Amino acid sequence: LAVRGKATHRDTRRLNEQLVLRTIYGRSPISRADVARLTGLTRTTVSDVVDGLLAEGLAEEVGVGPSTGGKAPILLRVPADARHLVGVDVDDDKISGVIVNLHGEIQRREAVPISGRDGERALADLDGLVDRLVAGAERPLLGVGVGTPGIVDTAGGVVRWAVSLDWRDVPLADRLRVRTGLPVSVVNDSQAAAMAEWTFGRHPGSQGMVVIKVGNGIGAGIVIGGQLYQGESSGAGEVGHSRVVPEGARCHCGSRGCLEVVASVRAAVARAGALSAVYPGSVLGSGPVTFESIVEATQAADPLAMRVAHDVALPLGRVLGTIVGVLDISDIVLIGPMTALGDPWLSVVTDEARRSALPILAQRTRIHIGHVGPDVVELGTAALLMNSELGLALAA
Ligand SMILES: [Zn+2]
What we know:
This protein has 396 residues and is α/β, with parallel strands linked by helices. It has helices spanning 9-27, 32-39, 43-56, 119-135, 172-180, 189-200, 259-263, 265-275, 291-299, 303-327, 343-355, 359-362, 376-390, and strands spanning 30-31, 60-64, 74-77, 84-90, 94-101, 106-113, 141-148, 151-153, 158-162, 167-170, 184-188, 208-214, 218-224, 227-229, 331-335, 366-369. The strands form four sheets. It has a five-stranded mixed β-sheet, with helices on both faces. A five-stranded mixed β-sheet has the order 14-13-12-15-16. A three-stranded antiparallel β-sheet has the order 1-3-2. Helix 1 crosses helix 2 (32-39) and helix 2 packs across helix 3. The longest helix has 25 residues, at 303-327. The protein is globular. The structure holds zinc ion. Zinc ion binds next to loops.
């Protein structure tokens, strides 16, 4: 851990604290001597820093380890409930939030339905949900993390443009900071999800990861070497509005033929309607088609549903092939409602991605469904806050 330039005494102390905390968090239970050995800090510095962490409740003593000749060493760990965090996922149709501890365990949940595109209303609903979670917290809160669709300036905490909510230049972090008095971080939802899969998803051997969230919107988050790569204006991974069909149908972003128009949940429903005349025997022919009905029909291998799963998977697979070529990355993780289509969808995505990249690159890329589950965005915002507020590097 290099301290460059004119680091003040306070900077050094903070960096040492973060280094010690990170070591205890990642290696617990661990003795002060082992923390010193692993960090390269002196025994005295480690003891000083640990005293501070004990006083703040960020470390605790948990018995003694084996003696190596002298007195048996006291072991330390970071209590899971030393701090709690609020994590929020702003989605098309609902805002959900959780209180989570430092081990990523959910303590409490809240949700409120929203009707997309009423941006003001959604903001008020978000305020209310955050207020309820903060009021119900039973431990000191480290902060509030919010994942939202769209382009987010994470450094400034501003939602630059969220198409589905019609949010433009909304200073979300300031708004919630004033409201709660807590640190607030705002991040694109797919980027948050990527951090959650990286941190909590148990993908052994992974060097880097692209996580693609496929719902009504489509977005990606990129983790390289344990760090979220957000690009120069925080827009890295915004693949949903890449044009994949020249002169295709119009998209709500104003363009045409975007990936979201042909590969999203909404696209699947539209495709089922458009093809129903071609498959008169399909179980989907007998009523209004919903995405849930397509999922069910796919499980029964209904020919129309299988065709729909195939047709929405192809363009996504092609885009994944491009991503493999650009990033040469070991893991592509698919999450979001679309993954409910299961293998008939996943196998086409995978085959098409492999066909769309150089075989030497594509053969080592693993494409699979995410492990974290429905709280993935909330957990990702919490992981990012733990990183920014406590320096807990959560790399697997
Ligand atoms: Zn678009």
